[in-house]
Amino acid sequence: MKSALLVVVLIACLQATTVSELKERLSGYGDHPFGSSMINLVSVNMKTGGSLNELKQLLQQIKDELIALTQLQDSENATFTRRSQVDLAKLQATLEQAQQDLDNQRQEQSSLTNELSTLQTRVKEDQAALDRNSRGSGDAQSRLDAENTDFAAKFQDYSDAILACKEAQRLLLNLRGEGASLIQLTQDTKSNLIQTKENFQKIKEILEAHTKKSSLTLFQPIIEGLAEMTTKVNPETLNNVLSLVARLITALQEGQDQLEANHKTQVDNLTRLGDDLKNEKQTLQVSLATANNRLKEIQSRLNELDGLINISNAIVEVTQLNIQDATRINELEDQEYSNQKVSRQTEIDIVDRLIEYINQKLSE
């Protein structure tokens, strides 16, 4: 619209000239749309006559407007470039932050995956240890129960043996108290001696499993002495048997005391073992519960990280595409600006040559 207006003005102001002179003056711009139009219009207007000074002023005004338009385009392009740089910088910052978030999330994911594997191994080990602890506790309790049962039986054996010895001792003391070396045995006394001898034989057999051999050696001479006295009572034999029985009572009492002491030690050891196993069980249970809770936390966080990583990946991809689009737009805008600047400068050069041409005509 502006070009059409300028053409009308030029038609009214230019003096007559030839087309060949203008083409020569605008050598190199003849094919330019603006140059071609200017040649045609200027030649027409110069043929119609007009003031060259007014034409020169108008051309200068056109040049000034072209320069102003160029400056405006430069300013607009500079503003666009700054905004584009700011936008690209924001996109780049978004991309870097998303990539940093993605790296951090992947590192956390890797770390938690390793911790998860370690904890799973620990849970298996703790569970296996807990199973062993349970078996150990059961074994310790079984051993304690067996120890108590065995002790009760052996203690009773000793008590029975000591009681039998004391019964025999009382019987023999009664015989010695009668004071006759060749006493005629009553049937009851004889039966008691035989029964006592048999009791000693049984006790000997019972105690053989858990009594010192030194104590067992006393049984045989006692049994033999009692057997002899079932036919006749020899004072020497009687006293010897009484002495052996007294020694046997002492030995059995010592054996029973030792049995009780050993039992106490064994019970203390097994009880302590049971307590240790109980404490170990509590520690393992706490450890196992802690590990299982941590496993749940890790698994929950890993699930959360899967979602976050997907989001970060999407942000990275979208931002990269936005940067590519923005870069392409900037390149197109730069190319367009460059083309416009070249075109505008060409138009200014055409006007300058026309002004030079007018100046030449004025000087003729």
Produce a short descriptive summary.
The protein is mostly helical and 364 residues long. Helix content is 90%, strand content 0%.
What descriptors fit this protein?
rod-shaped, disordered N terminus, mainly alpha, 364 residues, single chain, 90% helix
Blueprint (SSEs and pairs):
Elements: H1 2-13, H2 19-25, H3 33-48, H4 52-177, H5 187-207, H6 213-216, H7 219-229, H8 235-363
Helix pairs in contact: 1-3, 1-4, 4-5, 4-8, 5-7, 7-8
Notes on the structure:
The chain has 364 residues and is mainly alpha-helical. Helices cover 90% and strands 0% of the residues. It has helices at residues 2-13, 19-25, 33-48, 52-177, 187-207, 213-216, 219-229, 235-363. Helix 7 packs antiparallel against helix 8.
